[in-house]
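Objective 1.3, modelling of assemblies. Example input:
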Amino acid sequence: MADDHKSGGQVSRDQLIDLLNEDLAREYQAIIAYVVYSQVLKGAEYMTIAKELEKHAGEELAHALTISKLIDYLGGSPTVTAKPVKTSEKAEDMLRFDLDNENDTIRNYRDRVRQCEVLGEFAMAEHLREILKQEQEHQIDLATALGEEVPDVSKMKADKGKGQAEERAIH
Ligand SMILES: [Fe+2]
Ligand SMILES: [Fe+2]
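Predicted structure (tokens):
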């Protein structure tokens, strides 16, 4: 898929279905990560964020249901496959993985809102905006727990591997 599709340019309805399925796979990834990390985070200093992560898990499930509904509405089949979830024994690593994923998710939903609007799908764009608001809250929770500034995802590269050095350079 060409780059302009990924940066929020014009897409067909079929391409939108594919992109929403990637969003859905990211929501499943988030559900799994938050379910597991919220239960295995240890240490008094992480108890508050562990409770937050548990709340995020429920919100990600609601997002997955909304995205599935949108895919079905467009005549597509919602995916059954999650993006891979990283594991680590270290609390800071877990929070870092979550923050990286939220950054990626936010970047994608910003594109998706624009793509829906270009197609005249204003109600869909509204649903995605509601999700985006919660993703930004997740991002703030994680950045705060890591003692960092909230990253500016508009300045990050789409490629996550390459983008991480820039993300780290912010603080
Ligand atoms: Fe989500
Ligand atoms: Fe999230």
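Residues 160-171 have pLDDT under 50 and may be disordered.
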